[in-house]
Amino acid sequence: MKWMIDVSFAVHPDFKSHTSGTLSFGGGADQVMSKKQKLNSRSSMEEELIAVDNVVTMILWTKLFMEWQGYPIEKNILYQDNKSAILLEENGRKCAGKRSRAINICYFFITDQVEKGNVKVKYCPTDDMIADFMTKPL
């Protein structure tokens, strides 16, 4: 399973960001979500963490659903285009700098899932990010 999650930072009139996510099993988008985030943050890196927190339940539920249907999931990959967010997701608080110390601990749930082997986080360049199409205003 390949998940792509992306954020458009502060694009709404109240300066809230927009999250989008897509799931692909190889070709096309099998599951898609796009929604306005419920809170503001100070940086796009924080918004990426919030976006992953918003989508992580779908990621884990879909993996469990597919396995219960008899389809073992060997790779559950989450692609993002923000390298700072990837570092925080993989390493948790230990790589948080001065500006990221105030990030709420609930946004490090993904770190727990990475350590358990339920999901792997990888970098995807912005130009290849399919989820990017659903975060931009027309």
Automatic annotation (TrEMBL):
Domain of life: Eukaryota
Protein name per Swiss-Prot or TrEMBL: Reverse transcriptase Ty1/copia-type domain-containing protein
Organism whose genome encodes this protein: Cylindrotheca closterium
